[in-house]
């Protein structure tokens, strides 16, 4: 193999679909996609999950960065996307062993640069759907056509073999030393594998916790939306009921008005009948009979019509009352389910996880990774800073001052102009060694402080 074709560490990008990896490309091709030179129509108007990989000449993954990338309706990459993938890969923490030792892993729950965390995602570590295993197998398939390093062991020619003298065949001390070294190496490998397994389990716990929070938020949102819909339906039914009541009142008013009209007509007819009585008894009897008959027919027709309308309204009101009662039961049931979902979250889930042997680990500068017992979860939630300060054996005030100095190691002293000195100073890595007024001041302001103290 010539020098030009010697295998080297290769940068690659792989995109995840619903059934695993759906597209692979070398990093120069990925840069062409970011520059808008090449579009990917099958990714149009989607947010894709992708992984940036460093692959060694033996086709083994050495680093992985899991990130999101948005595409427009034409399949072009987001022009504002700007994540330093190689920088994140170089500064990432240790991850699982994929065949060539622990990889460097950067994802949402393990991001070396905090402001890029929102653009990363956590890989699934579930058995049968482990994203890291999928990447390892894809690199082994070598669909990218990478140059592979020949790792076949060198064969030594027989004539070059040399036999040691017979008196050198036995070396008990050397054998014992070799055995000790081998045992120490095996112990070290076992410790590394154990640490990697613990780290992988912590990553999976963080991923499961985030998935649970997202599912719980979705259930709460769905319950809230359904409650609003039911409230709107109840309000609409109440409005319909008020309209029916107003309509019934109007019908009753019309019936009373018609009854008054009939009464007036009857009075007029009675007056006419009395007038006719004066002209003749026979004619009066005929008119009376006709009047009574007509009056009965008109009253019976009016009463039947309004009774029918009232019966129809009563049936509608009964139906709406039944619907309202059913909707009220649905609202109460959904409220109970929402309360049950809320009660199952938080402490109940933490207790179940603790019984399964899960431990809760957080990271604070100065204190490192802290394992929080279940009984301390509430105290930690109330004041994480005070909890971390207790673990560093300092007060909360001193820990907060040290954290400000640790995040920005510059002089806090004020100049005569009133501005902050801001001179870069050495960072104090341990909270207990931090002294306010000394550790956070430059040499000049330390000396002036001592002079003021002496005077």
From TrEMBL:
<feature type="coiled-coil region">
    <location>
        <begin position="317"/>
        <end position="344"/>
    </location>
</feature>
<protein>
    <recommendedName>
        <fullName>Chromosome partitioning protein ParA</fullName>
    </recommendedName>
</protein>
<feature type="coiled-coil region">
    <location>
        <begin position="209"/>
        <end position="279"/>
    </location>
</feature>
<keyword id="KW-0175">Coiled coil</keyword>
């Amino acid at each position: 193999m010539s020098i030009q074709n010697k295998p080297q560490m290769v940068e690659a990008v792989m995109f995840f679909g619903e059934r695993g990896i759906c597209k692979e490309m070398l990093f120069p091709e990925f840069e062409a996609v970011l520059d808008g030179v090449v579009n990917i129509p099958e990714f149009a108007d989607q947010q894709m999950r992708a992984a940036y990989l460093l692959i060694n000449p033996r086709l083994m993954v050495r680093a992985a960065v899991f990130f999101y990338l948005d595409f427009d309706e034409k399949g072009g990459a987001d022009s504002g996307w700007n994540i330093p993938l190689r920088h994140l890969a170089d500064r990432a923490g240790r991850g699982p062993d994929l065949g060539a030792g622990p990889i460097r892993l950067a994802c949402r729950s393990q991001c070396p640069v905090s402001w890029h965390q929102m653009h990363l995602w956590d890989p699934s570590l579930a058995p049968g759907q482990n994203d890291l295993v999928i990447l390892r197998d894809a690199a082994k398939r070598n669909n990218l056509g990478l140059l592979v390093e020949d790792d076949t062991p060198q064969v030594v020619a027989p004539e070059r073999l040399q036999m040691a003298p017979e008196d050198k065949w036995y070396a008990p001390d050397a054998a014992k030393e070799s055995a000790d070294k081998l045992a120490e190496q095996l112990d070290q490998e076992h410790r590394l594998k154990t640490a990697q397994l613990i780290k992988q389990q912590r990553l999976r716990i963080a991923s499961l916790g985030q998935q649970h929070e997202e599912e719980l938020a979705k259930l709460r949102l769905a319950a809230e939306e359904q409650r609003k819909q039911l409230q709107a339906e109840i309000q609409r039914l109440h409005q319909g009921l008020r309209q029916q009541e107003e309509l019934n009142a109007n019908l009753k008013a019309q019936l009373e008005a018609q009854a008054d009209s009939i009464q007036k007509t009857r009075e007029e007819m009675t007056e006419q009948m009395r007038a006719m009585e004066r002209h003749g008894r026979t004619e009066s009897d005929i008119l009376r009979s006709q009047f009574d008959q007509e009056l009965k027919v008109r009253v019976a027709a009016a009463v039947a019509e309004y009774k029918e309308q009232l019966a129809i309204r009563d049936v509608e009101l009964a139906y709406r009352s039944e619907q309202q009662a059913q909707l009220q039961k649905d609202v109460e049931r959904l409220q109970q389910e929402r309360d049950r979902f809320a009660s199952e979250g938080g402490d109940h889930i933490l207790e179940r996880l603790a019984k399964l042997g899960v431990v809760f680990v957080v990271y604070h500068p100065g204190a490192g990774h802290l394992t929080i017992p279940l009984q301390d979860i509430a105290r930690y939630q109330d004041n994480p800073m005070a909890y971390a300060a207790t673990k560093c054996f300092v007060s909360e005030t001193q820990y907060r001052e040290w954290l400000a100095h640790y995040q920005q190691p510059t002089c806090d002293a004020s100049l005569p102009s009133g501005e902050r000195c801001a001179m870069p100073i050495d960072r104090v890595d341990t909270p207990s060694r931090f002294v306010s007024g000394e550790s956070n001041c430059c040499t000049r302001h330390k000396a002036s402080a001592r002079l003021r103290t002496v005077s």
